[in-house]
């Protein structure tokens, strides 16, 4: 067995950073060598610097790492995972790509850059082919690969196979999103206990734009032609810890039956079986009328699958259904890690 | 000042029954004379029989009433309010109408009967004109007037003025509904704490059907021609005590601007000012981007108005917005009482 | 009727500040003339500056006031209510007292100062007699009157009459406190949804110390000899919006029966009837075995009373019972306002 | 390796029954052969009969078992685990013991029977020696072994080693208990969302009595002399899914330091290492000031340990601390299974 590739986590002490630690600890291909955070934390052990809020135990080896600052140089880590906030992620990620790192980022800053892939591993793996263009354009020895917003990921895992086969004309989506999506401290309890907040600033635009980029077609010039799907999003925050739910209605370009859609969702992953964290089934179906539910179903497929239920005709569009995804696993750290696995498997990253 | 009309409450000990008590206590036109419940409770004082779960104090006069059974005869009460469960409401309500009572019911059993008005006071007050037909058809000295399902009421208060002016072609609605809508004991806490349940059995059909009857047109023969609006509903239960929220998208028959819609919603009530519990503005607008919220806004207009916010264009239909209503006040007891006020005001009920 | 006394609120935009607005709006003796907040807010209208999070509507007159800074001079307001954070309250409150204002403060900074009354209106109204000593000591034309920590207030309203009659030797108290006690943004939802936090920093010491000062005896020299009651406190945070609950066990110096304790709690307020916001019964009793409950009982007595239930023998001490109080009404703004009413009624404040 | 012993679960479809399924599935010593439930469920597959509400997947082998009734005969299962409700557990458990089954019961019916062990495996393993007396007394070829109430188990795991070494004179305990302790449907969401219920009927007496039996001494005649510890309990229900917390104050017969108590809790399990589900450390310590927390710490030690934190002096008794335990794992099914492991290991049960 070959040595594992050392990786760094930027923004390692936050909520998504902690999920990166859990996804990468004991990973067969990657090894956490550096955990980086704000200058306040730098110099402390990770155990001291972090307020660990996961039900899983903080892995002992990571706990003893000394936290570094989120700046160059970070030696010996060809791969860098970014859980940085969007206030600082833009420049820092660029500087790492310039310094020959492969940056897999959960931040929104570069998602819509025309030469940056917005990669959802099972849905648009071919978009990795944008990278040579990106590196040439920017004259970077490294590269940036982004993943979408958490709610978009859960949605697009379910939309991807349908769009590929039948073409999505319209998508109407109303989300009920968990508080962990807002990071920490995030949503004040006074605002959300026994309550719903009918807006998540910026989230609706992300769903509407990122979905079209993910479902879009890679052209010969390395640019993505966004899907022409019309997307309308309404986002809400609900008092749930983990698990974003979406109530989705779609209309299709080609005619399809409910059975056709179910077949789309029962397909095994198009990804190579060797990828360690790829779920065998990217979409899991529930058959009970009151599922999926965030508290019971978010962890299915180890938090890496979208769970779909209640498929039925929609009087206004063609079909409606419910999608659920784990927002900080598949919706954040998990997709970044899986994206890195694919890039490594394709030989893009020199070991 | 004339004497108040004595009224009875059927199902008076349940959650909606308790709201009837609060809406009718100190009412200027009505006086609670009889509180009726299951045979188990009959004979006890209301204080003993009820498990009072309202933050408001149980009114002392009602507390001392002796609970009766939900069956005839109930003397001296021309008006009967029904908070009965649908398992028994159908036959009991009929028997009271046959015995010359005016029954204002929150139960679903007779809502879709072709000669029973599904009355939403501000939206279709003219539907009260179905009653002479009903009484003739059924040879009843009394009558039955129903109100819609809680989520339908909140929705239709907002849709009514738009439909009247511009015509609604399509309505897509996703609800986030409070647990009080399921009565007591209702939703187990193990199911809903920190969770969402993406289905409320039967609720979606009610929203799709009842909306069209409410928005429908009364014909000369006393029947309602349902509106041809296509309605698609997706209902969810969220961990909120009171207040049903709906994320609504609509398309209109006539072209309209956002300003037009706002004008529709700013109209004062079309009801006579004399009705004691009619809100002056049936629709209240919020202007903050994160409102309306169930915990902060359900009680606006004393729980009798729908609160609307976040009006904006919908890429899939024409417009989208958020509606909130108090599900056990306006969505249940409050509409029944207001319906009775209108019937009394119109002289339909002999004092 | 005499003119109302103009008052200022320091820290008027926070959660407790908003409660001051509600307690003081339409107050028969006081009139809000100035609302003060951080320099960021100064110059804006209160409506713009505040994020109003109360179910009650923001009073229109207050909404139009221009927010001032929390510094001198504030003209024409003999009385100043302070909802300031403890990081800044100490010096600001002093400066106002020096400038001839009467400061009624909810902040903890001066509570344990030996010449500052820690006033719980019904329990130790005689402690107001400390003020002449304070003014002489400090050579202040004004004065500072503090109220206790929210959980201490709810507890001591119930303990006061027992201590007076039977003497409290030991008090063991475990609290279950609402999130509104932590202000805004306060407790992150990720920490408290579906969870309990078994510590509130600093709160246990406050309960143990402030209780003894409140129950203490005013000596001839204007100092308080603290009660010798041994108090042990354990504080927890629970996912409740408003209402602090305490599970209390006590042992008494003199022998007493359950009936004796109930008699203590059924006494009417010792305060003059003229005080506008004094509850007639400072302690309200519940008789159901599952009460008091924060969501159902916090607002009893308009949020100004402590609600006590489940009195029974304690195998370890003498008696145990449950106390509930509204933490931001009686536990904060309400006590400050009532303290000011008493000072005014006693003629201490020149109108 | 020897064959696994076939076992039956009575009450297998309820919440605790589902936990039994999870604890026993893939158990190295036991194999689920029979799942029994109400007559309504009998004849269905377990998958059909159960409403599975666990985040873990329903094990496929169990799903396919046909549900039986909770009555004799159940062939080939020397061991029977009972998750029956107390309304029916008493007689059914007796009948199984008479029919030569070993019954490990979570029901309260036989806990205080003088010849029935109330076994908390690490604390009073010697109480298993009551069984020969029980079998002689009752002339049963089988036997009944009970485990305590969920909150008592979490408490006594922490108290056991202290009592053994220093003697407990007084224990004052206030619990904050999760809704899963009330079974399903259990606590209505309308009662507990954003609320606390300051009573759990019957629970305080259980804590006060069962603690003394568990900590009691087995006499030569096979009876237990209860510990003379004075226990005072106050129980509350909080909106938490899993994990009972207790705020505990104790006074000791012998003098002890905080360090002494910590040493007691750091001891490894006194149980034989071979027992498959015995946690190596029955008490786990937290060092952060705001822990243990139900949502973060209940699953530590696979839900089989008590988590203890915040040890400090108590002004009223000697020490105070916080205990947390997983109420449906260690507090129910887990202790029953561990009790059975011990009995099997000691050779009491013939394979």
Commentary on this structure:
The structure is a homotetramer of 351-residue chains. The first copy, chain A, is of the alpha/beta class. Chain A folds into 2 domains: 5-149 and 333-345, Rossmann fold (3-Layer(aba) Sandwich), CATH 3.40.50.720; 150-326, Dihydrodipicolinate Reductase, domain 2, CATH 3.30.360. In chain A, 29% of the residues lie in helices and 22% in strands. Chain A contains 11 helices and 14 strands. Chain A has helices at residues 15-24, 46-49, 60-63, 86-98, 131-138, 150-166, 189-192, 203-214, 258-266, 294-297, 329-345, and strands spanning 5-10, 30-37, 67-69, 79-82, 102-105, 143-146, 168-177, 217-218, 224-225, 230-237, 244-252, 283-285, 306-313, 319-325. In chain A, the strands form 3 sheets. Chain A has a 6-stranded parallel sheet with strand order 3-2-1-4-5-6, sandwiched between helices. In chain A, strands 10-7-11-14-13-12 form a 6-stranded mixed sheet. In chain A, α6 (150-166) packs parallel to α8 (203-214) and α6 (150-166) crosses α11 (329-345). Chain A is globular.
């Amino acid at each position: 067995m070959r040595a594992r590739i050392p990786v760094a986590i930027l923004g390692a002490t936050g909520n998504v950073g902690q999920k990166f630690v859990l996804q990468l600890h004991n990973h067969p291909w990657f090894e956490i060598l550096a955990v980086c955070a704000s200058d306040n934390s730098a110099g402390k052990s990770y155990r001291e610097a972090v307020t660990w809020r996961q039900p899983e135990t903080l892995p002992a080896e990571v706990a003893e790492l000394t936290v570094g600052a989120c700046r160059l140089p970070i030696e010996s880590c060809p791969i860098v995972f970014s859980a940085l906030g969007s206030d600082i992620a833009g420049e820092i990620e660029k500087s790492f790509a310039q310094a020959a790192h492969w940056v897999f980022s959960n931040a929104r800053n570069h998602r819509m850059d025309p030469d940056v892939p917005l990669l959802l591993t099972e849905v648009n793996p071919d978009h990795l082919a944008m990278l040579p263009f990106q590196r040439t354009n920017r004259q970077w020895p490294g590269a940036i690969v982004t993943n979408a917003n958490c709610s978009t990921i859960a949605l697009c895992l379910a939309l991807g196979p349908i769009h590929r086969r039948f073409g999505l004309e319209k998508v109407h989506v109303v989300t009920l999103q968990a508080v962990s999506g807002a990071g920490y401290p995030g949503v004040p309890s006074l605002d959300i206990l026994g309550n719903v907040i009918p807006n998540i600033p910026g989230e609706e635009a992300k769903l509407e734009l990122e979905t079209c980029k993910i479902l879009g077609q890679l052209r010969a010039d390395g640019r993505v032609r966004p899907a022409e799907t019309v997307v309308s999003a309404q986002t809400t925050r609900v008092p749930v810890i983990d698990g974003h739910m979406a109530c989705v209605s779609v209309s299709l370009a080609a005619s399809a039956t409910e059975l056709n859609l179910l077949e789309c969702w029962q397909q095994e992953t198009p990804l190579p079986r060797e990828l360690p964290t790829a779920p065998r089934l990217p979409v899991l179906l529930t058959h009970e009328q009151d599922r999926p539910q965030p508290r019971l179903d978010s962890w299915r497929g180890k938090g890496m699958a979208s769970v779909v239920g209640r498929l039925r005709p929609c009087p206004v569009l063609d079909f409606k259904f419910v999608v659920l995804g784990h927002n900080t696993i598949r919706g954040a750290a998990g997709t970044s890690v899986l994206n890195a696995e694919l890039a490594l498997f394709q030989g893009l990253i020199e070991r």
